[in-house]
Prior knowledge:
Blueprint: E1 2-4, E2 9-12, E3 15-18, E4 21-27, E5 30-31, H1 32-37, E6 62-65, E7 68-79, E8 86-97, E9 100-101, E10 108-119, E11 130-138, E12 143-154, H2 159-162, E13 168-184, E14 189-205, E15 211-226, E16 231-234, E17 236-240, E18 243-248, H3 263-278, H4 297-304, E19 308-325, E20 332-347, E21 354-362, E22 366-375, E23 382-393, H5 398-405, E24 407-423, E25 426-443, H6 454-461, E26 467-477, H7 485-502, H8 504-511, H9 532-546, H10 561-581, H11 600-612, H12 617-631, H13 638-650
Amino acid sequence: MRLDTDSQRVDIAGLKLEAPYINGVYDNDGLDLVSLLMPAGIAQNNAEPEDNPQPEETTAWQVVLGELAISEGDVQLHDKAVAQSMYWRVHPITLTTSEIDSHFSTPVDYEVALAISGNSQAIPENAQGELVARGSADLATQAVVGELTLSDIALSQVQSYLTPFVNLSLSEGALSATTRYEVAESGKTLLVSGDATVDNLTILDGLHYEPLVKWQSLDVADLRFSLADNTLDMASVNIIEPYAKILIDEQKRTNIGAIIRSGESSSENASEVGDAKEGSVNTPENGEAEGDSVDTSVTGEAEGSSLAISIAAINLNNGSAYFADESLTPQFASSIESLNGSIEQLTSNAGSAAKVAINGKIDSYAPVSLKGEINPLLEELFLDLDFAVEGAELTSVNPYSGTYMGYYIDKGLLSLDVHYKVQNSELDGDNHVVIDQLTLGRKSDSEQALSLPLGLAVALLQDNDGVIDLGLEVSGDLDNPDFSFGSIILNALGNLITKAVTAPFTFLASLVGSEDELNRVDFAAGQDSLNEQATQRLTTLAEALNKRPGLRVSIEGTVDAVSDARELAVAQLHQQLLERSAQDALPDDFSASNVPLEGPLASTLETLFSETFSDSVQDEQQRIRAQLQNNNEEPVTEQQVTRALHIAMYN
């Protein structure tokens, strides 16, 4: 060390610390090291400071430290400010710097390397991640540039800080990153760029402590964050073997339903942490001068505008998802595997939408695909997606069909081709559903089953190739608090089935483009053969039934006793008149009002009347003459009397 009073300069060749050790406790009152380093009695000294005369201004001394070096540093901290206290150890710590000038006339080069570990039980022995930073700091302008490398930082170490807010467990996962950073204008300008990786992540749900989300690797390439521009850009996000699980347990609780802890418990824990922070800021006991304030200009600036996000590509590689419902008997489980694809050009720009192209397989065999456009980063969701499933085995959904439809399924394959669009909170959907070779099995005894004749519905909907082909259009308002996607689908399907089974013959007529009422075929009164119109109606019904071979139609005959009796009596009368009059045929217009006034038919009609009734023809003639005369002012002719007589005898 060299001191020069003339130039008021102190030169120190170097300062080296070997194996420095610090052990501290952080609780709601702050960090205990602060109070230990304060002079005794300063906290109790409340006397007004004396008005001492200001010293004359003098030239400031310059101190130059040639090198600062720390090796094998060891910092241990017990954090009691969280609900589940944490023990932290940073060891070993290595720090080297270039020359440090108290006048800040030259930038300081630095390099720091440390290993970090945390444990909720005791001070950990083994490192759970490493950090290396090197760069240059301009103390005069408070600007820093450098490179930061994180290696295998165990994410499980931060579990205690997540527990007050989320009901999840970070079981496994390691963060690694290689970044370059630039800080200027006292922190108002920050630029970070680089790559990051999270390997072997496993997050357990808080209900059964089973994997909720996991992946082998998540790689973020060419990440760039600018505080000045308020932007976050990524060239690509590659996810290797992602996995997600949704579970409904026997009490109908879901493993995702309680991820966010209740507001009360969260606020209490947040309050505790907040109190701890308040205890360490702006208090003499914590070494801060009264009146000091925190610069909030950066925070306010960031809050002024939303972060603009841009991700060029999100790539899925060999992903899978699993769903299980243990509330049913029998229990249901299904999976989507071999998920591969991408989401490209995802941005928070309202004028753009990301391209989606993802393929997979249901239960390892049924192809499934999702294609279209989506922008989940907007305040109002936008999507325009096509979802397709080909040949999914329906026997796998027997727990649902037995519970809600009242039947188990013996056989059947499901194919879907659906299109959904959401824009301005309005949903429009077009569902094309194809069910091949559906065969219902035994009935269930479920009390939740719909009261629908499902067997009839299947027979009505299934064509002669054993295929049910349905088109369902749905729509809804996502802002409506009563909106439920599942409900609108079930309602549309239920309405279609109800319409078919409550008016089956109308449904059959629609299959062949007819509006005829096929539920009845009318015979003319007294006839045993169909007219042309009735025959055409039967032909239409037969054509429709050929398209629905599973249907069996029962026929029930009915009789109109009055009309049939009259027409049969007329037919018998015509036969008798023809036989006894020795005529070859009756006139085409022969009827009660067209009986000839004289001749064989007239004579035979009078004879049959006399044989059938006790009244004589003469008596009937006199009765009719009197009746006609009473109803007419003009004299009645014999022709009128004879015509009326024949009508009466005919009827």
